Amino acid sequence: MSFQRIWAMFVARNYEFFRDKAAFGWNFAFPFLIIIGFSIMFGHQDQKQFKIGIFPVDSPSSAFSQGTVPASLQTSKQLDFVTFPNQKEGEEKLRHYKIDLLLDRNSTTHAYWINEASPNGYLAEQIFLASFLSKDQPVAAKQVVHGEQIRYVDWFFPGVMAMNMMFSALWGVGFVVVRYRKNGTLKRLKATPLTAFEYLTAQMISRIFLLMFTLCVVWFGSNLIFHFQIHGSYLLVFFLFFLGGLNLCGMGLVLAARGTSEEFASGVLNIISWPMMFLSEVWFSLDGAPKWVRTSAEIFPLAHLLQAVRKVMNDGAGFAAVQNDVAFLGISTVVFLLIAAAIFSWNE
Amino acid sequence: MQEPILEIIHLKKVFRHIEAVKDVSFSVHRGTCFGLLGPNGAGKTTSMEVIEDISPQTAGEILYKGRPRNESFREEIGIQFQRTSLLNFLSVKETLISFHKLFHNPENMDELIDRCDLSSIINRQNTTLSGGQQQRLMLALALINKPDLVFLDEPSTGLDPQSRRNLWEIVEGIKREGKTIIMTTHSMEEAEFLCDEIAIMDGGMIIAQGSPKSLINTHCHGSTILLPRYALGMDIQDLPFSWRIRDDMIEIDTDNIHQGLTRMLDLNIELSEMLVRSGNLEDVFLRLTGKQLRD
């Protein structure tokens, strides 16, 4: 193995990335825009959980004054009230999951409608019915968790960074290698002493360098706005992202080890990346999902990366708490690289 | 003559059900330029890529300096492919530097830039180069490791006459240094000018081999009379010679120029605008491979 040859390919690939202004800019803009967008959409403390429709009224306050809505619900932070001129319009919205519960202002018996197919409808109904219990009737003993809150953006940020890493690694390595094979660039390199292992290692190192560079820039920029709360070690978080990035690059190399069709490569990359993204808790937690779904998610490196990073960032965990995830990522990275080098084809 | 630097023994290459190369054997001697000629689909590029170790052979043996090719083979050969691409967003200089670092014993960069006339485009991006400039860069990459054996696959395709002449001068320079060249080309003029030995391939086999002169002497021992079409004055099918049409001219082959001209005068053919030339490599090529179009 020649480090000089690896270095030559590493430098050449970096030139390409940094000079491709469109791709370069998008790598920074994409995660930044997602973080800002989602924190605006979901980051508000006063976000309402359920929507209650009332008919026939012009404004919620007139329904409140008539006692259609129990007093205890009128000030609830989780409820948003929407009015309709008639029952038909309200039912239409209920059928399409736009609201969770519909109330009749004129009903003396507190008539209400729900969509039984809607999980939110059931919960809104329970809240509505509970509001009729008498105040002195003990239902449950309330306890409050004390300590610093984990904001949505603190939980969400590692997911966006990992997702960006995944797309950048799979497409930036996998797709590019297939394109190079198709246009003959790899064939030109095969006519030199460069080995497949050296070439793939250079591709991987180059991409991880770019991924970590992007991570640092986006992190720094986002942190100026959101002031992330990191409860564990910065160094460990950085290491986990580094290892995860290497792993995802390795996966990209395996997928691109053969073939010359960019369309086929794109299809394969989509088949891998989309389930991995949804099952790795990038967007939402899998707590409550069927056990087989949670077990299946364990095969994805992205899931281990995110579990580990969130443990460190949100819970302040140390290396010992994430060592299984580190082992999984480390071993699978080596396996990916060896498989890619073994089955790699330079030409069509 | 020196010992062969390369020996190809019963080479065969099959792609699934297509036999692209069938039992090809030849030797290339040090310091010579060996040309592989043939129509499209004859198996030239496939043979080259197998010999270059870009794709594996189905059967046969390839000996380099008397031994099977080993890991040092790639250090000692240079290849200019017929179709290839380079890394995007790199300048000519950066491309040369990248490839320079891939070899243990590379050529002096300044000499290489000078030899391939790259100094005026050294800071240009690869994607902005003209066809001739790209070919010069590709040739520089093929020479970057001071190779003993250089493969040139249709190096002048798409070049204007000036660029082609410039390329020939560079190739002549390589030959003068005692390096061995194997090339394919569709230009008979180029093959005649550069090659010391030629093998003509068709249908995956070598159908003729020798120096350009010996091939012409063997397969084209007569002369060719060129006449404007309008001067014939008779149905061309009735012409008692081997003939072919090129542009507005009829090319008539004859083994004996005196007898040929006498016969034509007997047929009252107008000879005032006649031209006579001796046979060339193109005549040999067309005679051996036929005139039918190939894909």
Describe the model.
The complex is a heterodimer of chains A (348) and B (295). Chain A is mainly α. Chain A has helices at 3-19, 21-42, 60-66, 71-74, 87-95, 119-130, 152-183, 185-190, 196-226, 234-255, 262-279, 291-297, 301-315, 319-343, and strands at 50-55, 79-83, 101-104, 112-113. Chain A is built from 14 helices and four strands. Chain A has a four-stranded mixed beta sheet with strand order 2-1-3-4. In chain A, strand 3 and strand 4 form a beta hairpin. In chain A, helix 7 runs parallel beside helix 10 (234-255), helix 9 packs across helix 10 (234-255) and helix 10 runs antiparallel to helix 13. Chain B folds into two domains: 4-217, Rossmann fold, CATH 3.40.50.300; 221-278. Chain B has helices spanning 44-51, 73-76, 92-100, 109-115, 131-143, 161-176, 188-194, 212-219, 257-266, 281-289, and strands spanning 4-15, 18-29, 33-37, 59-64, 67-68, 77-80, 149-153, 180-184, 197-202, 205-210, 223-228, 242-246, 249-254, 275-278. In chain B, strand 1 (4-15) and strand 2 (18-29) form a beta hairpin. In chain B, helix 8 packs across helix 10. The longest helix of chain B has 16 residues, at 161-176. Chain B is globular.
Quick rundown:
The complex is a heterodimer of chains A (348) and B (295). With 348 residues, chain A is mainly alpha-helical. Chain A is built from 14 helices and four strands.
